[in-house]
Specification:
mainly alpha, 81% helix, 0% strand, 102 residues
Length: 102
Amino acid sequence: MLLITMLKKYTLSPGVATGAGMQSTVALVNLVCFYLIGVPLGALLGYLTSLEVKGIWIGMMGGVLAQTITLIYLIWRTNWDDEVKKASERLKRYYVKSDENS
């Protein structure tokens, strides 16, 4: 049950952060969590202990957990009022009135 809840948060948080304009931050979090946390932890648990394949999976789930916690924290700390203002300014800048609306 914990795994299902964690996977729901895992699929939701990158989409929210990317939609909020934090694409480069999400990419950096993915790189750090998977390649600097998940893969080394999986290699240590898989090859240096008797866990073998289970250790690799545990390491990768550790990377997923680290990513999920990081992105949830970033989403929580985001000032959504400022994000709405930025989006409104972008819409005003690129909105072109047609002759039909005049």
